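User: Sequence recovery, please. Input:
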């Protein structure tokens, strides 16, 4: 399935603000009682991985226990209380854990709200469901007590802000909504810079009549009051910038899917001016020999960067250098199968394990990250994720 056919902007309906906790929304579903008892009696998990079904009728989070060796076991599912889209987000960051792993935030793109869960090991408790501030929320980013959400639809191509209380609860930030640079943006990700003064949004659709060029990356500066500036479109070095991640020194890495033809995918890196949000290229379109690179993230030590390549069903690895330059290590560092359709990728909090959501098969694949950045398979787990129907969003600790 070509990514191009999935670039259309979808519909959504609005939903009123709701802050309600219902035990039934957090109830176990679809798991045998003995599996639940095994989970209760087991030792505390080394960590957990959460994946979102994105089912249109009733969105759910599938919960996986992470063992010390990185392998996963599905132990539970909980409802978000909202609706998914039924087809994949085509964005990065639809399901996000706070850095302290105490709270999980999920975009309900079909009902235009955000669900907030308290996290205790592999157990989730729904504590809030709140209107996202726009139509089709698909990407979240945090810095300190701020959260911004990206909306991507014909009705709303914008970002909106929230404050985050110590107990995880969200409060809308007045006057924080800012439009993207184009009504046909088809955005890919929203990311805070490491110091919180800059926001970036990748735009996958070519711009028509918009300066500075056919493909852009929108940037915003963020003031002490948490409010984002008006958009400042920046020229993308490569075509169809899809997803992005920041090094801790403020250097931005961007996955470029380019045209959906063999050997077109690449990664570019940029310096970002913290005062103006202006981008300047460091490494331009470093090719990985693959097709449709869409998701990107850094290893915990930031020595390596990885892209998930949707069309070729594999993972690419790059050397990420302190000066911002990047070098391809292995275009096919992990092969997942042509029908696997890898999308969201995450790394465990201890930096040892790499996880990728496989849209095509409804699984999460696990790998150990070796000292040289190579990936050693640690198996796959399912647990009720739908295959070929848009599972979107992955989080891990």
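Assistant: Recovered sequence (397 residues):
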């Amino acid at each position: 399935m070509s990514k191009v056919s999935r670039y259309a902007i979808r519909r959504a309906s609005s939903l009123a603000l709701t802050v309600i906790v219902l035990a039934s929304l957090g109830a176990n579903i679809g798991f045998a009682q003995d599996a639940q008892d095994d989970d209760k009696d087991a030792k505390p998990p080394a960590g957990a991985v959460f994946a979102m079904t994105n089912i249109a009728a009733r969105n759910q989070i599938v919960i996986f226990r992470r063992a010390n060796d990185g392998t996963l076991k599905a132990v539970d599912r909980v409802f978000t209380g909202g609706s998914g889209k039924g087809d994949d987000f085509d964005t990065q960051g639809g399901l996000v854990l706070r850095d302290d792993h105490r709270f999980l935030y999920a975009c309900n793109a079909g009902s235009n709200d955000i669900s907030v869960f308290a996290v205790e090991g592999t157990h989730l408790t729904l504590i809030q469901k709140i209107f996202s501030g726009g139509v089709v929320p698909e990407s979240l980013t945090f810095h300190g007590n701020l959260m911004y959400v990206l909306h991507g639809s014909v009705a709303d191509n914008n970002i909106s802000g929230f404050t985050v209380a110590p107990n995880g609860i969200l409060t809308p930030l007045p006057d924080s909504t800012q439009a993207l640079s184009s009504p046909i943006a088809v955005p890919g990700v929203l990311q805070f810079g490491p110091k919180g003064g800059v926001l970036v949004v990748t735009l996958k659709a070519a711009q028509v009549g918009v300066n500075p060029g056919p493909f852009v990356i929108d940037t915003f500066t963020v003031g002490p009051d948490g409010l984002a500036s008006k958009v400042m479109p920046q020229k993308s070095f490569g075509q169809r910038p899809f997803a992005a991640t920041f090094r801790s020194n403020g250097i931005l890495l961007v996955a470029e899917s380019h045209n959906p033809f063999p050997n077109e995918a690449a990664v570019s890196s940029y310096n970002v001016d913290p005062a103006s949000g202006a981008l300047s290229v460091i490494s331009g379109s470093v090719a990985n020999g693959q097709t449709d690179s869409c998701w990107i993230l850094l290893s915990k030590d930031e020595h390596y960067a990885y892209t998930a390549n949707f069309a070729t069903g594999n993972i690419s690895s790059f050397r990420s250098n302190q000066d911002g330059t990047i070098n391809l290590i292995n275009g096919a560092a992990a092969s997942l199968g042509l029908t696997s359709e890898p999308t969201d990728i995450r790394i465990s909090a201890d930096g040892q394990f790499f996880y990728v959501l496989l849209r095509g098969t409804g699984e999460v694949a696990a790998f150990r990250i070796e000292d040289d950045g190579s990936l050693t398979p640690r198996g796959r787990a399912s647990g009720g994720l739908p295959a070929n129907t848009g599972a979107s969003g992955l989080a891990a600790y």
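The chain has one domain: 3-396.
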